[in-house]
Structure to design on (121 residues):
């Protein structure tokens, strides 16, 4: 069971050029990408949804991902799960057991949220 909810709202803070969103483990920093039709969307990659199934956790039920401090950079690719290419003769297993990550793509949504523009009198 995935224990976090990606809010359907991305927001820009003080003129940043990347989307931020919050899940139960913390804040995610994503990136804006464009489709071939030049439509902008938000991308959040390599979001951990469970602890890596290595060591004592191998062959056990998945445990929820732990909270992180600060903002998680969700702009990088994650490791590929272990696999072999059965079509290619002599191929060796490749990938990493630490591969329990999600990629989330969402339409662009803006909410004006900027503490930089607040007038204090």
């Amino acid at each position: 069971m995935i224990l976090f909810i990606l809010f359907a709202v991305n927001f820009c803070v003080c003129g940043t050029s990347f989307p931020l969103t919050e899940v139960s483990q913390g804040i995610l920093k994503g990136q804006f990408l464009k489709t071939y039709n030049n439509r902008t969307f938000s991308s959040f990659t390599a979001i951990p949804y469970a602890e890596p199934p290595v060591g004592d956790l191998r062959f056990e039920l998945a445990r929820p991902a732990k909270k992180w401090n600060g903002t998680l950079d969700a702009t990088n690719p994650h490791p590929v799960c272990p696999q072999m290419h059965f079509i290619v003769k002599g191929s060796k297993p490749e990938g990493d057991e630490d591969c329990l990550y999600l990629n989330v793509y969402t339409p662009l949504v803006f909410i004006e949220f900027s503490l930089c523009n607040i007038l204090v009198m």
Remarks:
- Confidence is low (pLDDT under 50) at residues 1-15, 111-121.
- DSSP finds no helices and six strands in the chain.
